[in-house]
Design brief:
The protein is 56% helix and 0% strand. The protein has 73 residues and is mainly alpha-helical.
Length: 73
């Protein structure tokens, strides 16, 4: 019985130690930069007509702002 408690305590300490050591918050530093919608459209030649439509509708400045945008084309 005494040996079982010792094994349980040892495993508990190992599990907690592993959890504390592995909880690192430095993973967010390597996140890729997400381009704005208008920058994405301007960088891709396949979307030239969409870029022209956004310019004509005067939406390029709006799409450079913050926020989630959904573009149907």
């Amino acid at each position: 019985m005494k040996k079982t408690k010792l094994i349980f305590k040892t495993l508990l300490v190992l599990a907690l130690s592993t959890a504390i050591i592995s909880c690192d918050d430095d993973d967010d530093n390597n996140a890729p930069a997400i381009p704005t919608a208008s920058a994405f459209v301007a960088a891709n030649a396949n979307f030239s007509s969409l870029g022209a439509a956004l310019d004509r509708a005067d939406l390029t400045a709006t799409l450079n702002g913050t926020g989630p945008f959904t573009i149907f084309a």
